[in-house]
Amino acid sequence: MKKLSPLQKERLNYQPKLPSVLANGINKLVLKQGEKTQSVADQKEIQELFKNSYGMPTVTFETSDKEEKRPAKNIGVILSGGQAPGGHNVIAGIFDALKQANPENKLYGFLGGPSGIIDGKYIELTEDIINAYRNTGGFDIIGSGRTKLETEEQFEKALNVCKNLNVTGIVIIGGDDSNTNAALLAEWFLAKNAGIQVIGCPKTIDGDLKNEQIEVSFGFDTATKTYAELVGNIQRDANSAKKYWHFIKLMGRSASHVALEVGLQTHPNITLVSEEVEAKKMSLAQVVDMITKVVVARAEKGKNFGIVLVPEGLIEFIPEVKAMIANLNDKLAELEKDEAYKKASTDAEKFEIITKNLEPENAKVFNSLPAMIKAQLLMDRDPHGNVQVSRIDTEKLLIAMVREQLNKLKAEGKYNGKFSDLAHFFGYEGRCAFPSNFDADYCYALGFNAFALMNFGLTGYISSIRNLTAPAKDWVAGGIPLTMMMNMEKRHGEMKPVIKKALVEIDGPVFKYLQDHREEWANNEEYLFPGAIQYFGPSEVADITTRTLALEKA
User: Suppose 197 and one of 125, 385, 459, 528 were both cysteines; which one would form an S-S bond, judging by CB atoms 3.0 to 4.6 Å apart?
Assistant: First the structure.
């Protein structure tokens, strides 16, 4: 038997809380339809691509006194994309709901992500297997992967695997791209009259898969609390040693929700927000100047230390750099076929060829970057054909440029402090943490609810649990059509339907709270030390929600 830590043994016994409507029994649910929906943008194009699943209504559940047991069915589940705390509880929720609905129901887990349903690799998830993973972090129960479900051949293979297993429903647990694939698969099954349902679950620690109906994606709560503990520890050390500037890069390529939330939990001296940089059209030099001014101001008070939080995707939000990267993405796709570029044996040779191919302004920005950063821009691209911004050491770039600026000020007699720096990147540390009580409850409810949607014959929906700042018993269970969240975006040089990412709203209450306290936190040591995630104790400690959710729902 696998050895367990004392905490894991204890967490296996935790019983997640459910909304009252779901806790009353899966077979006592009544489906209530809301208004018909449309996509958030590009309605004509999305409707044309999703002829069979566009415009469906939102739905919620209510409780009936009557119990209705349905015939047995087999369901499949897929974990897709990067890990997020609570994924195992989504699967546990699905399992408990389907067994409660009919003990003859079966749950199959497709192994290694979406490729499992294509290649026919699966296991039947039994009670013994599920019980060993309840309330634990990670995706290791069946593994995950990043295979895209988007081609006719893949859909055909998935259909054959489902037929062989007599699977009539698939739950895809993933982020915006994974749920886009869920929408495509649902539409294809409908067009083929295949009789197979597809339901999505909102997962991503980045926090960018949300709207009015999806208040937060699962994993965000746990990940930000994990990072906040680490940042708090570093702040305590900085305030003790009083000699280091810590530049801390945090997960979040496409949005700054993680950095903003961790900033609100810990009160660092500087929290950069990519969306603000973009909205104000700040140049890289202006971002560096903003940091430098705080460093100088603190040095004048004898404080040669501080904390800077940097969103992972910051560099892509700087307009001049964003334009350069967009140009670079296009040119790299073309240069893959260029013989001279393929034969280039050194970075310097590649830089020269790229400079000649970029538009003049973009070439100027490219050449202004340190060689280390330019090399990182040329690394293997992501599945969408884009530069992998997560590989760019933005925190080290900022350190180098701030130091250069400080040296100039020192030479001019305008700065006499000391600048000792340390760089950190917190990413993987938060992806597989033990889920917080909130994520344990939320994920379990999402899975339970996903089966409920399936039990009513729905397809092309994403599981939605709302009213999340209230006690779990008062949460609202239902679903929204995946097409409602979609727009058209350029991928691999072509316009494709994708779920629209939710960015930080700089006119919203969460960012405004940061804005109102920015100067105070920059000049002083208003550091908060959140400490480790608490699983036991008073609700205001063990069940506390994120500052983001609290401010948004205040």
Answer: 459
